[in-house]
Amino acid sequence: MGSYEIVPYTYAVDGGEEDEYIVDIADSVRAVERLLNYQFKDKKLLEEALTHSSYTDSASYQRLEFIGDAALGLAISNFVFLAYPDLDPGQLSLLRAANISTEKLARVAVRHGLHRYVRHNAAALDEKEQPQPVTMLFELCQKDGKHVDIRHWRKGEKNIASVYVDGKFITSRSSEQKENAKLHAAKAALDKLSHGKSNDKMSVDIYCGSSGTNEIEGAKQKLHELCGKKRWPKPSYRIEREVGPAHERKFICSVQMGTVDGVLFVAGDEKSRVKDAENSAASLMIRGLQESKYTNI
């Protein structure tokens, strides 16, 4: 197995106090093999897998992470394909995504104590573990047997994260950083779910400056027809904000509509005409409905 160095390692034990241990990487390799009930032929691969990028004296797990994501995705795809023959491709994709998410894998690693054997030189990783919004959201929903799905996409310079629980849209938040958008969305979803605000407005933070790819021609009329078909109340529009000087005034409009599950609220992009701003909001509402459980609209 070659030579191994002794490195200091600190982690929080069951009592909540942080104890410092001197961890031999060879001992870590053997401990992880026992946890996994698997003996690695090439021990160096496992050593690499247990090395954080902050630990510069040895190759980190970043290259293995690249191939591991694909391998795990294929394994989960094969499993759900065989285990759930009645699910359509869209449902299988959601199931796969839920099981290979970073959040889900991190919680599994912590549950089995694998994080204790990762060597690193990042002080932040030694800090006592604090409940994070994403973890709290998953735990809250798991208690009720509900499935959480956090979806991401980009809009201009913004990363947008949307939270769905059992296929129902809850809320969205955006940020320049993808992880921040995810944290903000999880925190907002927690606030709604933990305080029983299921009938509150489901606000979508859509920021200005889109390329126009979300625009649907005649969206207001189509949304009106949809509400009639679903027997929902007619959507209502209002001007949320006016920006720019008087000779270059632009408007941001919102649309609000009621459904059997509560009230939905979406703000659109800024436009030079109120009519166009309302159509932008209607377009985004339709897009949101299409991505939620209302997939047949």
CATH architecture of the largest domain: Orthogonal Bundle
Strand order of the largest sheet: 6-9-8-7
* Strand segment tally: 9
Question: Biggest sheet, in brief?
Answer: 4 strands, mixed
Could you name the ranges where pLDDT drops below 50 across 5 or more consecutive residues? Answer: 1-22, 197-213
N-to-C span: 60 Å
Q: How many domains, in number, for the residues?
A: 3
| DSSP helix fraction | 40-55%
Structural class: alpha+beta
Number of helices: 9
Name of the top-level CATH class of the largest domain = Mainly Alpha
Beta-strand share of residues: 15-25%
User: What is the overall pLDDT average?
Assistant: 75
Annotated CATH homologous superfamily of the largest domain:
Ribonuclease III domain
String of helices and strands: EEHHHHHHEEEHEHEEEH
What topology emerges from the helices and strands here?
Layout lengths: L5 E7 L5 E7 H12 L6 H7 L12 H22 L5 H11 L2 H10 L21 H11 L4 E8 L2 E8 L2 E8 L2 H17 L7 E3 L14 H12 L5 E8 L6 E10 L2 E6 L6 H18 L6
Parallel strand pairs: 6-9
Antiparallel strand pairs: 1-2, 3-4, 4-5, 7-8, 8-9
Question: Can you offer a commentary on this structure?
Answer:
There is one protein chain. The chain is an alpha+beta fold. It folds into 3 domains: 121 residues, Ribonuclease III domain (Ribonuclease iii, N-terminal Endonuclease Domain, Chain A, Orthogonal Bundle), CATH 1.10.1520.10; 66 residues, Double Stranded RNA Binding Domain (2-Layer Sandwich), CATH 3.30.160.20; 73 residues, Double Stranded RNA Binding Domain, CATH 3.30.160.20. The protein has 9 helices and 9 strands. The strands form 3 sheets. Strands 6-9-8-7 form a 4-stranded mixed sheet, covered by helices on one side. It has a 3-stranded antiparallel sheet with strand order 3-4-5. A two-stranded antiparallel sheet has the order 1-2. It is elongated, with a radius of gyration of 24 Å. It starts with 5 loop residues before the first strand and ends in a 6-residue tail after the last helix. 24% of the residues are buried.
